[in-house]
Structures are given as C-alpha cells and as structure tokens.
Design goal:
The structure is a single chain. The protein is an alpha/beta fold and 244 residues long. Helix content is 45%, strand content 8%. It has a four-stranded parallel beta sheet with strand order 2-1-3-4, sandwiched between helices. Bound molecules: zinc ion. Zinc ion binds next to helix 2.
Amino acid sequence: MQLHLSSWPEVEAYLTRSKAILIPIGSTEQHGPTGLLGTDALCAEIIARRAGDAADILVGPTFNVGQAQHHMGFPGTMTLRPSTMIAAMTDWANSLRRHGFERLYWLNGHGGNSGTISAAVTAIYHEATFAGAPALRCLNRNWWELPGVAELIRNLFPAGEGSHATPSEISITQYAFPDAVKRADLSPRLAPGGPVYDADDFKRRFPDGRIGSDPSLANPEAGEKLVNAAASALVTEFKTFAAG
Ligand SMILES: [Zn+2]
C-alpha cells in the first residue's frame, strides 16, 4: 500500500490496523558511467514497495534527495545541506504524528545519509519532548544491512562490489527498470578505492565516479534475488518494530 496512491479514508482505515509507516530514503547522485542518478532512492523504494505489497505495510513517499555534497562534481547530482534535511525529515515526522502514526521506519539507500538521519531522529524526538506530544519511535536501517543481505551480496559479487556504484545496487535498478540499463566501457574495470572528502577531491580521486567497484558485473537476475531477500527481511523487521 502506497501513501501517494491511497485516498485519505484508506489511510484512516490503515491507522485502525497499524500506527507504523515505512519511508524509503535515498539520494539523487551520480553512480558512475552506468549507474542511474536515482539509484539510492530507487533501491530503497523498490524494496520498500515490495515489502508493502507483501504485508499490508503503508509505504510513504520517497525522501529522494539527501547528502551528496561529495558527488557534486558530476552533472545531475542534487544535495541538501544537513540542516535542510534534518528540518525536512522533522516536518515529515510531525505531519505523520499529527495523524496518529507512532512508528516511522526509515529504509535508507545511501550510506552518506546515515549521520544526518541519526541527527534527524534526535531532532524528531526533541520535537515531541518539547511539545509534550505523544512519543514517536523511529528506526533507521540501510537496506544492505537487513539480515541475510550482506551475505547474499558477498556470494553474488565476491570481487568488485566496492563501495559506490556497486554491482549490487545497479543490479536492483536493472531488475526494476530494464529499459534504463546503461552500458559503457569502464577503465580501469575495477575503480580505485580510497577516502571520501569533499566534491573537488572526490572528482580527482575517482574521475568516473565509482569507488572500488566493477558495475559491469551487475545483472537483473542478481537484482531480483537482492530485492526478494531484502524485502522479506524487511517485512519481518518492520512487523516487530510496529508491534514493539
Ligand atoms: Zn548508491
């Protein structure tokens, strides 16, 4: 069940069954020569919607621009200041709390968002305390950290996974959007690794945008396996969180 495809009476009825909502959160940022700008938001959204369809879970709109300052050397990347993201997530949470939601599960698709999401959750808790409002509980999970998913990634891509523009995330978008599969000559085939600082330094260290990865390994079959495994683990974790 998706919020943006529901009517208000349907959401009102859902609230009599559950006070928990699942919100995909990602980024709009370069993912190398073959990865989609929307990869991080799309992966979280695809997995969340699969879980939502399987288990009567309400899936909110995707928070699809995040912390991508270090990718700003590449056209198409969009980013929010941390303070903007914290303010926006707090307003999303306040809106949902006003309608009676008590559990917000943020399914994240971009590692660079993690610190800011944690700060936003702290801000959301402050809002409730200062307003004397009913408590709201948040859970923040990266999709690749759901139980069983990291092992599956290691099995599918024992070499070349890297840490940005990875074959696993690109496989998921290839599975969900076969008409948007991109091809390019990758040189070197395995991208360099190293630390991440700001946008200019990133572009010098990682000239085509990849970090340590070989996304030519990506394939839709692997994407299907990853979506199935992640969505099934997500249903279990969401249900436990919603009931807690
Ligand atoms: Zn990514």
